[in-house]
Amino acid sequence: MTTSTSTSTTNTPAARGRRLALAAAALAVVATAVPLGTTANAATTSATTNAPGKPTWCPTVPDHRVDCDTMRRPLVDGTPRLGTIDVGYAVVRHTRPGPAKGTIAVNPGGPGETLIDRAGLVAAALEGALDDYDLLLLDPRGTGKSGRLPCKVTEADYRFAPRAEQQDAVARCAEALGPRARGYTSAATADDIDAARARLGAPKLVLYGLSYGTYLMPVLADRHPDRVESMVLSGAYPVDFDPLVRATAQHVSETLRRICERSGACDPDTAVRDLAAVAAKLRTRPLDVTATLGGTPRTIAFTEDKLANLLYEPASRGIGSHPAERSLLGDLPAALHASANGDDGPLAALVRAEMEHTGTEDQASFLAVTCNDYVRAWDHDAPLAQRRRQYQRALSAANPADFGAFSPKGWTEGQSDGGDNCLTWPRKNTAQPQDVDLDLPDVPVLVLSGDLDTNTPEANSRRSAAQFRHSTFVSVPNAGHVPELESTGCTLAISTHFIRTGEPGDTSCLAAIPPIAVAPVTR
Description:
- The chain is of the alpha/beta class.
- It has helices spanning about 15-25, 40-45, 120-125, 155-160, 165-175, 185-200, 215-225, 245-265, 270-285, 305-310, 330-340, 345-355, 365-375, 385-395, 410, 460-465, 490-500; strands spanning about 65-75, 85-90, 100-105, 135-140, 205-210, 230-235, 285-295, 295-300, 445-450, 470-475.
- The strands form 2 sheets. An 8-stranded mixed sheet has the order 1-2-4-3-5-6-9-10, with helices on both faces. The chain has a two-stranded antiparallel ribbon with strand order 7-8.
- The chain is globular.
- The relative contact order is 0.15.
């Protein structure tokens, strides 16, 4: 991905909007979407000769001084026998003379995404604030410059395995980490960010969280309320989210309706019926799809749960960044219609393309944080057999209509970080789950939600906003997960204005965000 623009149009509002939207990709990454090893434009983030005392990995950012350091932190507070961990961070300094007006701390999602290697792109995305704000970029423990954590469970192997094999992989990962798994939690990363703040001498932080970052940043605010100036949460969900992920299931159908209505390329009701028909077909007759994963040909059984995962995560990724170009979401109505009428070829082609673009990064940090922290439909302290019974009771008690076009089992097994994926994560030697009863500071909060987001839909983002006494909710049309990726730069302009003023300002630019292209559905 590039952030370059034509020199003849660099200073026009439209060109600046495009540049910001492209740069925002550095913020809008999630662990199951973009390889952890992906780096930003090499011209802005590759290591160069640095000043004495600066780590060799410290990135360079044009027009900004960048300071980097490593903190030695206890792996688990109060348990010195488990040792320590070195946590790396970078600070992109403001450009105007004099002291910084404030410090922005970003988390791009995952859990398990890095920041330091994307410093140039993150700085470009927030360029409207970095003339007088510093930017704190910390690699969460277990990632990047903070002790990359392995357990030999890759993203490709995890995502495309049957649910039982996913649960086996979760158990193997926990066994590989052993008692050190207790050190990889949202609370620990929140404390690391605050420790970096204290080192910098910054009195407070502007917290900017995207996707999983919208879970992490409220945890930080709960633990360090006096150190929060304001918050921007994009693609948000609440800490006490529904472990069966029902609102998201319903929003998948609503998203199909919206893209059909706005494009005129398909009938909204037909698209939803086709989705339900294909989900029902895959329940009993999986589709075999062969693709190359990590250089090795592999055939998977594409079942209802894999269809659910396709619509939950990848279909929402990057929506709005190139609205005129083909996308997975835009191609789905036609592929579903063909499959519902007996032709599985177009759907298989979409699945194959997704498989071949899935990374092979280790999922240790992702699994450790989500399995340690997230609310579940079972008692974390119960033995495995009892957990299974508790989960099945919760699933049986749920209203099937709440899962949209999917069956309850098919939908929940499609969640890479929800449903019963962590059922086999043992309580022994692992952290207590995150407390959902947060005491949050009364600070300005902006919550941004793409109205085509099938990962963290509007209903969840509104619940996230409701956690705070003074929050502003902004729905971004024709954008997915997360809305900063939309092509006009409007969303980033709103968030930058909020950072500076505590208010979203003029949001009329949202009306100019174009609808995405949708492949015509032919009968």
